[in-house]
Amino acid sequence: MSSPTLNSSTQPSVLLVEDEKSIAAPFAAALARGGFRPSVAHTGAEAVEMASELDPDIVLLDLSLPDIDGRDLCRQLRLDSDVPIIMVTASGTVTDRVVGLELGADDYVVKPFATGEVISRMRAVLRRARPVTTEARELAVRDLRLDLAARRAWIAERELELTRKEFDLLARLARDAGRVVTREELMSDVWDMNWFGSTKTLDVHIAWLRRKLGDDPAARGCIQTVRGVGFRFAAPDEGSSP
Hints:
Elements: E1 13-17, H1 21-33, E2 37-41, H2 44-54, E3 58-62, H3 70-80, E4 85-89, H4 94-102, E5 107-110, H5 115-129, E6 138-141, E7 144-147, E8 152-155, E9 158-160, H6 164-175, E10 181-182, H7 183-191, H8 200-213, E11 223-226, E12 230-233
Parallel strand pairs: 1-2, 1-3, 3-4, 4-5
Antiparallel strand pairs: 6-7, 7-8, 8-9, 10-12, 11-12
């Protein structure tokens, strides 16, 4: 599968991975009415095959499948593609959300849900996944360099292996280097404008980013915490933190 670019059709394609046919059929019909082109996979094996053949714009992944745990399937899809993935599950604890996001999911929907809410979340995820225009292809701050269109990042000459959310978070902070970006802004811009509940996942992703940036002089102190407010990426004229 390729990196996520919306198909030429005005209707984005969605791969719905749902083993219960009594749910999949009406849900697929609702997605079609909402402006999507749904395809349904009832098992993990079908999902892998269809994802490779169809190259969907987005995947709706139920975690309860008969042949594989949905989390393992998410990890497998992430090996080959950056296609946006929304997990669908009956469990909505903060820990479950964090684990899902760590595996590469872009959003997390808890059953029971309103179809309209899911469609709104799908559209929000697709907006964030669209390629960046050529006018804003690259961004360089301090020793950090980002290729926004290719979604690649380097600190000094070392390329960083980042998940989708880690890249989006780093790019969001780097765009406003030197300025504090509030927690609310980060959750709205990187996750979902309708996100509710704990922002613990933001702290988790910041910790992962700091670990991946490393403690060499080029990266030390790049991401700073402003307690009670948010985070800031150090401006180019600031020295490295000790």
